[in-house]
Design a protein that fits this description.
about 290 residues, mainly alpha, two-stranded antiparallel ribbon, two-stranded antiparallel sheet, about 5% strand
Length: about 290
């Protein structure tokens, strides 16, 4: 069967006239007549349109086969309904085969001999691995120490031991100095104070220095008392030689007085801090070593 005969038969089976087909393909009905009489042949693009219109394959129109093959059948034969999967690896944990397109992950692990290697696992095993790591992290998470809220809540934020070392050194030097003074004045002091005075003075100075130079409540007391100030009165003078001399004398006097008051407040701060440090040194030292 020629291509013209096939086109004529398919058109008739479709119930179309040559004019109907010509209008649909935008050609003249004389062209359709020439195709069906095998006087001329449509081009490849038109053959594809005719095959789509009649529901047959282009191979049928171009071949001598008299049995029309539907496009759906041709497509079904061209496509393999069961494509072959390509295995690329397998899961190291569960042994599941991993095919191309499957979700997989790479993990770094150590062998029994301590050598690091990269292994491939499936998505399920990877999720189990991540969940296990999360649980381990929760178990190994350090427990926060309770915050002490008592009067010694601001003990120190220093992790080194330099304040204690300096306090011990200065305390020993002070004890030695007091011991020398007591030995020199042994007749007036006596054996009891010669022994007790160096120990008490050394301990008091050591405790005061340590408690002041750590961020304890005693350092707050020391800074608060040492910052006390007394507002000195102003000086009234006249713009003459005597008035200016009076101003100079009063300014110097007030400066000396202010300095003496500053020294007095400093000594008062040291005295109060020293008194508190004698009783607070041991608790502060224990708390520091326990919490830092």
């Amino acid at each position: 069967m020629t291509i013209g005969q096939k086109l004529k038969k398919l058109r008739a089976d479709k119930g179309m006239t040559q004019k109907d087909l010509a209008d649909q393909l935008h050609v003249s009905f004389q062209t359709i007549s020439k195709w069906e009489k095998d006087e001329n042949e449509p081009d490849l693009t038109t053959i594809r349109e005719l095959a789509k219109l009649y529901g047959v394959s282009t191979d049928y129109l171009l071949s001598e086969d008299e049995t029309p093959l539907k496009q759906s059948q041709a497509s079904a034969q061209a496509i393999d309904p069961t494509p072959t999967k390509i295995q690329i690896d397998k899961c190291r944990d569960c042994g599941k085969a991993l095919y191309q397109g499957d979700v997989s992950h790479q993990l770094e692990r150590k062998t029994n001999s301590g050598i690091k290697e990269i292994v491939t696992v499936c998505d399920d095993c990877f999720n189990k691995h991540e969940e296990l790591n999360k649980r381990r992290a929760e178990l190994n998470k350090p427990v926060a120490k309770p915050v002490y809220s008592g009067p010694l809540h601001r003990i120190t934020n220093r992790k080194d031991s330099r304040p204690l070392i300096w306090a011990i050194v200065i305390g020993i030097l002070a004890a030695i100095a007091v011991l020398i003074a007591c030995v020199v004045n042994y007749q007036e002091v006596g054996i009891g104070w010669t022994i007790a005075a160096p120990l008490l003075s050394g301990y008091a100075i050591m405790a005061t220095i340590y408690c002041i130079f750590t961020a304890s409540y005693i350092s707050d007391v020391f800074l608060s008392v040492a910052s006390w100030s007394i507002k000195l009165p102003g000086v009234i003078f006249t713009w003459d030689l005597n008035g200016i001399a009076w101003l100079i004398v009063m300014k110097i006097s007030l400066a000396i007085l202010g300095f003496l008051l500053g020294v007095a407040t400093l000594l008062l701060a040291l005295a109060i801090s020293g008194f508190l440090s004698v009783f607070s040194f041991v608790p502060l030292l224990i708390y520091n070593k326990t919490n830092y």
